[in-house]
Amino acid sequence: MPLFNMHQIRGQLGRDQRLLGLDPGQKTIGLALSDVSLMLASPYGALRRGKLSVVAAEIRRIAAREGVGGLVSGLPLSMDGSFGPAAQAARDWMISLSEQVGLPAAMWDERLSSSAVNRMLIQDADMTRQRRAELVDKLAASYMLQGALDATAE
Fold it and tell me: Into which EC class is this enzyme placed?
């Protein structure tokens, strides 16, 4: 299944369907869920990153339970905006995941999403390192998905 842009994904969603945002890290995948009006992204949880088939099965379960009609994954562009090896690996992973889950997918620039979330948790929430580690993945997914929703709002 090819990747789509955010406008195409929004156009493919059925009535009352949501988007599931993914922030894939080395150890975990942060998850965020949009509301059905596609205006608000909320942190949803995190999955342990492992075999693609296991991750895909869990995302299929979440999608069925939550009425998800599309996936949006973070795209780790280089700081200068170029498409480097990390972005290519993320793109390849997302195409494979989309095919296994059976949902259309888009990617969205995630540069500095984890940094922004960490900074907020340190400065504004005054959280410990351990508590930040528990939250950062799903909050980064929410931050990324909210950016995608805001940029493509109609």
Answer: hydrolase
